[in-house]
């Protein structure tokens, strides 16, 4: 990788991370010069990074004005919610009874870490923990295609959760209680109960 490629990749990752973690909020206009100074590169790699991010749908470039950070439409949020419900419910229904107790113990460890993050009002850490928590339901099913589809949604999930940071903190006790319920329903093989709890959990987290 030559220096120009490395600079473009660094610019891409820095700007992308800023969008996903809420540093560059939806509706913000990003300028090449300001980004270049912030990242410590020239405008050329920033321009390449912005083009890549536009191709991915995170921004819209307006010549001589800047790059507008895109949010998620109500339709996109609803589609994300529906797809996550399908993937996680399908994954949970395929988990072998022989590994449920071991998996439940692993998930309870994650819940303890989530409690600590919320107590410290560390939204960034909580979001990464909860993404990993929900990924486990898909991963444990042992279906690589389901897991690949799930992982493709991770950035959109992360972006949306950062947008909902204050909302997540406001309902932190409910979130933890719902996670505990999901684990117990998984452990006992209550797939119908798991699906309904997950449906309400996603609806309450994603609602405007």
From TrEMBL:
InterPro entries: GntR_C (IPR011711), TF_FadR/GntR_C (IPR008920), Tscrpt_reg_HTH_GntR (IPR000524), WH-like_DNA-bd_sf (IPR036388), WH_DNA-bd_sf (IPR036390)
HTH gntR-type domain mapped to chain residues: 5-72
PROSITE patterns tied to this protein: HTH_GNTR (PS50949)
GO molecular function, one term: DNA binding
SMART domains: FCD, HTH_GNTR
Keyword Transcription regulation (UniProt): yes
Keywords tagged on the record: DNA-binding, Transcription, Transcription regulation
Designated name of the protein: Putative GntR-family transcriptional regulator
Native source organism of the sequence: Actinoplanes missouriensis (strain ATCC 14538 / DSM 43046 / CBS 188.64 / JCM 3121 / NBRC 102363 / NCIMB 12654 / NRRL B-3342 / UNCC 431)
């Amino acid at each position: 990788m030559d220096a120009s490629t490395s600079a473009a990749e660094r610019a891409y990752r820095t700007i992308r991370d800023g969008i996903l973690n809420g540093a560059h909020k939806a509706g913000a206009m990003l300028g090449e010069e300001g980004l270049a100074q912030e990242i410590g590169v020239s405008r050329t790699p920033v321009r390449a990074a912005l083009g890549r991010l536009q191709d991915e749908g995170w921004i819209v470039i307006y010549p001589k004005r800047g790059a507008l950070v895109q949010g998620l439409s109500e339709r996109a949020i609803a589609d994300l919610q529906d797809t996550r419900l399908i993937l996680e419910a399908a994954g949970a229904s395929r988990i072998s009874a022989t590994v449920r107790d071991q998996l439940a113990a692993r998930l309870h460890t994650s819940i303890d870490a989530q409690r600590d993050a919320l107590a410290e009002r560390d939204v960034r850490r909580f979001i990464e923990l909860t993404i990993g928590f929900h990924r486990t339901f898909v991963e444990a099913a042992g279906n690589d295609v389901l897991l690949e589809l799930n992982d493709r949604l991770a950035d959109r999930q992360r972006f949306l959760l950062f947008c909902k940071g204050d909302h997540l903190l406001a309902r932190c006790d409910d979130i933890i209680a719902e996670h505990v319920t999901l684990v117990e329903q998984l452990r006992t093989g209550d797939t119908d109960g798991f699906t309904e709890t997950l449906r309400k959990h996603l609806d309450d987290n994603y609602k405007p």
